[in-house]
Amino acid sequence: MTNHDQIRLDLACACRIIANEKMDDGIGGHLSVRVPGTDEFWTNPYPFYFADILPGDIIRVDARGRVLEGKHQPNPSIDLHPTIYTRREDVNAIVHTHPPYVTGYSALGRVIEIYDQVGSFLFEEQAVYNEFTGTIFSEEGAAPIAEALGNKRLAILKNHGLLAVGTDLRVALIDTLLAERAARVQAVALQFGATRDDALSDEVARQTRDANREIGHYEDTWTALIRGLRRSDPDLFAAEFSQQAKGIA
Ligand SMILES: [Zn+2]
Predict the structure, then answer these.
(1) Residue 70 in contact with residue 60, Cβ under 8 Å?
(2) N or C: at which end does the chain have fewer Cβ atoms within 10 angstroms?
């Protein structure tokens, strides 16, 4: 399997994981992985439900969103991706979704509070883009979001959803899962009557975040997620199996 084949498989897997977690939003949402050393990137096709996307559907586009490889078109809001890649050399993957808890919470225009060890992963990693001016259809529309993200890993987009960026796709995808889980825990905690005084202290949140990163939480979670997909979504791996059968994997 070539590096590009691996990127396509990983992106399709990420789409399925988001769909399986019921964090997708119809044909909305877009993910990408930068092609190393270029201004090109791989992204999901449009208009597709994430649950239907196969590795062969993933497309490669240039910095203006023009299709270089693949038989589909990118999401109309694709300008968000090159706008971020241009500003952030450390970012090699982007996940933008409208997961229900984060999207509902985003109406408040605030960062997610930290009520448990899962939430601690978000500590000091969240920015807020505190306005919604319509769907992104241009670099001009994307620039304020990229500016609001700054050097953070996550941005809560008011009245819209979530943006996660990472050094690789695993980080951006798993941060997306962690943010949705943390927003859900916060909602439940507040329903039970918790107040901000019941949130983790900054010191404990920081220590918990760093310790869990150090033991390889992102790598281990990705491995577990892929193991689950081999059971739930075997069609993702059909090409891999056929390559193995031919002895060319
Ligand atoms: Zn969106």
Answers:
(1) yes
(2) C
